[in-house]
Predict the structure.
Amino acid sequence: MQERRRYIRFIIEGSATLTPGDEPPRTIKADLADISSTGVGILARDALALGSSVTFELITNLWNEPVLGEGRVVYIKAMPKGAFRIGMDFAAVDKAALRGIINRLQAEACDQLKKKRTWQAW
């Protein structure tokens, strides 16, 4: 199957606190799944409406402070055990923090690849 995404997604560990623009207001605690330069994948126990606007706080050990922003839900899929996979495009996010996180993820991926390689003598 051909990949349809335009941007590389990196698996990431961390948590997210989501505040959808619902009435009455609510807060959803979730886990990070993956991240790219344009959005984030999240695993949550609560569903969000497709197209809804969400403010968020992302926490990962790859950045020393929470990453705050706003996004829009572009994908939602029910998963086993009552969980939901949520895809969210960034509408506003701290670009320096996002760049820093992605740079660290790329460096980690390169380090892992280097460790896997075994070079034969020429």
